[in-house]
């Protein structure tokens, strides 16, 4: 636990009052026909019901989605209008790849801290099932030309340019535009660089399922999750998962001997949504709402993965020292640490980097390594490998769960949230039990 | 109305029913905030000094309803209130016959007969006890004689409890009691305070309803909220989506909680205290069925029903009724069932649990601690109510269930809810330890 005084420059700290999410479903599973707006609205409705906010005007709602239809240009506001919140509640969309949910929470928390709002809701939603499909570039150009045509001759000419290949739609793929590599392929390179073994990855994955199953069993999610479309638990969860079962899976990323990443130790495509309620202590007290935790500080970072200088998902490793320095803390001061499991190897490579003297000196500019993390403090109620990872919804899931875990530990307990994101980015935040 | 009831109200159905002498269910008069108490003049009368009629007239006057002493030729009355509290012997019952008998033909659809008497056990002589008890037989028979949605109920007012009768009188006359027929309600005392506004009698109250996600529980939440209460809606976590809909509709809070967990009562109290400053009204509505003939009922089926429907209520009450639990003047209403009164083939576990609830209510009636804190505990026992639970009953059985009562139709969840809302009023302080059936005078267990 941190014993130092906090040199935080924030005028007041935003409180995490509660959260809600819908159970996460496997892509093309139970939510196959639900849109991002449906899911975000459902997540909001559960939050409103739990906290008695029907008809209330909330300071603002900030949320987003990574895979987004062009019609969803005002996704969050539309979700608010479809919810029981007062129509006078403003809303805006946020997008920072997988960091969206956590970034939204930081944005709202900062507005609360600055006194610009006294309460707000942050969240995210994503569907890999109801993903937007784009027409090919050729067809798009033809259609635009057709739209501009004034005479039938011009119209005929525009249509004449159409080729069979133009009508094949483009389905969004999980690839980095600048490297053409999928996230998994990128991660496979990083895993190799850090010598992350298959066994270690499978162990982490098995632990994630075991921990999440235990949390569901104990009723931990009774006040964090509201069922949706008949789904009452995370669909991806395999309570009987084991290292032995995971060891049987074939690698899907990387090549040859050194390929260690399987469908079991990588997160599956998932549908879901989550939201978090933030506000001032006073706002919460007026409504008799308990404060679970406070947002202490946050930090984002980005790395140059395009030139191969650093691994795509390693940015959080760089964000941490800046946070620790500002807060006068060490990694070992945290009672709980939540590192988003994009892949088991992401978590392990990040931990390995923090233990590595050369990396910490050369890359992070630290005199001594960040050091190792007591693994009993890591993702204690499971993480994305078991729950699934609807990109923008992961941040809200972690913030709400971690806040509740911290509040169960007692006042002053501190927790760290780390989420890596596409484009070589990372978002981190520190929470402290109220 | 569904099934037979809707068919019989079509042109063909009406004709057929008339020819065959089949029952003709009508659309019952139900409460709306802006509706009059009753639709038209009310005939009032009785025997001897009719000590309660002044109160009756005052209630009617307050609602701008005309009270008449006799029915003029060709006139309709919306209700008859007969004060028989002064009967001394069975001869006096002639007053009832003379007043109510001729008036029945003039009674409007969804009309009301309310008979007022005193509890037989408080009678001074055997003759008086006989006369008082006779009122129950007459009232139940009137219920069976009435047509077109009209009902008959008896109110037994203890000596000295006259001032507590208003809320019950209003309830029985109004559309709130649409499906309450041939019931005996006892008003035994208590300081009954009239609400500032009879249209919002639960203003300022905090109420918890278990099993509020759907069916009867959702209707209870709606009605209590309409009457002014702030709602805490409880249901199992798996029913959370529907629970959130209820909670948001009534502007309350959702508490995802299985009522069988050991600390359910404490958690409800804690939630109500933290969010709303305290708790006044508890409605134990959550319930399940696991139907089998007793011969085929295993330990698990038996235990789960007894656990959810009865043991959880006993356990929660320990916390809710303890000092520092419900606020003074609190109200507990348990949802029992006709099956608990009449028994039902294939429902021995369910009937055991629902009868057990009645035992619980009767035991608490004389609890001195609760009396001091002016907390009442009552039960409602629904008959056939149109819900998801009953829509799964096979067609023929369902139709029989719907028709085997004096109103020839199933009740609606709102009918149970209205009855609970009446019991929850401050003004119902004198109604304690009652079991009120909401069954349209079911032929079962009558
Ligand atoms: N429908 C009828 O005709 C009828 C007749 C007599 C009595 N009842 C009684 O009325 C009550 C409501 O019945 P309904 O028809 O609305 O049934 P329903 O099944 O539609 O609703 C019951 C609700 O209780 C909830 N519930 C069940 N177990 C629970 C638990 N352990 N913790 C919290 N919530 C739980 C369910 O999730 C459900 O939402 C029940 O007690 C039932 O026995 C119904």
From TrEMBL, chain A:
Keyword field contains Transferase: yes
Active-site residues, as the UniProt record annotates them: 98 (acyl-thioester intermediate), 389 (proton acceptor), 420 (proton acceptor)
Classification via InterPro entries: 3-ketoacyl-CoA_Thiolase, Thiolase, Thiolase-like, Thiolase_C, Thiolase_N
Residue span(s) of domain Thiolase C-terminal: 290-432
UniProt KW Thylakoid keyword: no
Superkingdom, taxonomy of origin: Bacteria
Signal peptide from the UniProt entry: none
Family annotation (NCBIfam families): AcCoA-C-Actrans, PRK09268.1
Protein name, as recorded: Acetyl-CoA C-acetyltransferase
Automatic annotation (TrEMBL), chain B:
Gene3D superfamilies cross-referenced by the UniProt entry: NAD(P)-binding Rossmann-like Domain (3.40.50.720)
Segments forming domain Ketoreductase: 205-388
SUPFAM superfamilies per the UniProt record, alphabetical: NAD(P)-binding Rossmann-fold domains
One protein family per Pfam: adh_short_C2
Origin: domain of life: Bacteria
Homology family: Belongs to the short-chain dehydrogenases/reductases (SDR) family.
Name of the featured protein: 3-oxoacyl-[acyl-carrier protein] reductase
Provenance organism: Pedococcus cremeus
